[in-house]
Design a protein that fits this description.
The chain has about 250 residues and is mainly alpha-helical. It has helices at about 30-55, 70-95, 105-110, 110-115, 130-155, 155-160, 165-195, 200-205, 210-215, 220-225, and strands spanning about 20, 25-30, 205-210. The protein has a three-stranded antiparallel beta sheet with strand order 1-2-3. Bound molecules: protoporphyrin IX containing FE.
Amino acid sequence: MTAPREHGAPADIQSGDAVSGTHPVQVHRYKAAARINHWITAASLILLAVSGMSLFTPNLFFLTGLFSGGQWTRTIHPWIGLVLFFSFSLLFVRFWRANLPVQADRTWLAKIGDVLRNRDDDLPELGKYNAGQKFVFWSMSALILVLISTGIVIWDQYFSPFTTIEVKRLAVLAHALAAIFAICVWIIHVYAAIWVKGTFSAMTHGVVTGGWAWRHHRKWLRELVVKVDGSKAAEIPHPHSATGPSSSPRRPS
Ligand code: HEM
């Protein structure tokens, strides 16, 4: 069963999202292009963090060995920065709509204690992303913008004639702070991807199980199983209805 992709489809549903009626049910979450885009972004952020830290403090200078020494590290760091910027920009275009905040995000955040205790029976039904994922998305967007703009200011090889030493001092400070925040946000992102079991396969194989989608992103799953012509409501019953999920044979496995 494919997702409704016509005009007016919910913002959550992106190209390639689909439910397959296999056993167990598979839900397609990311197309290959989105996954390649994501992993290029991830690899460039890791390379930037390592090369950036090696230039940040003499204690970590030994890490420049990974890039053939200090000169090379300094040369390639800004170029990898450009790769991150353009790669993340593409991710941004792909994902921004599904990351727009909605009312359910507030409720989910208000019940963050339940989320952390893995008690999800009283949580709102969520679209493709939860508020935590949306936080990662928007903060990475802002931080990468700061990193690229300050990075250009301090890229002396090409841009030194266009700036002053005072501006550069501020830019160096903002660049280092943004990098520290970006690394923290990245750690949160990876921790969450590992903590929520079953998430990794979304970015490795592009699919999640029906059970995972049901548990964590039920609204998105409901929207996906609506027939393409939109004439039929989602086949998955509401958990509070008489034929709730526990009694329903159609609950995804
Ligand atoms: C080793 C590093 C990383 C791992 C293991 C990882 C893992 C994942 C996984 C498993 C997902 C799927 C989550 C889901 O669909 O629910 C995901 C989504 C995503 N990742 Fe990563 N990621 C990494 C690095 C990064 C970096 C560096 C960025 C950005 C700079 C990034 C940005 C995103 C975005 C934007 C999404 C889509 C979620 C959203 O839009 O809110 N990831 N990642």
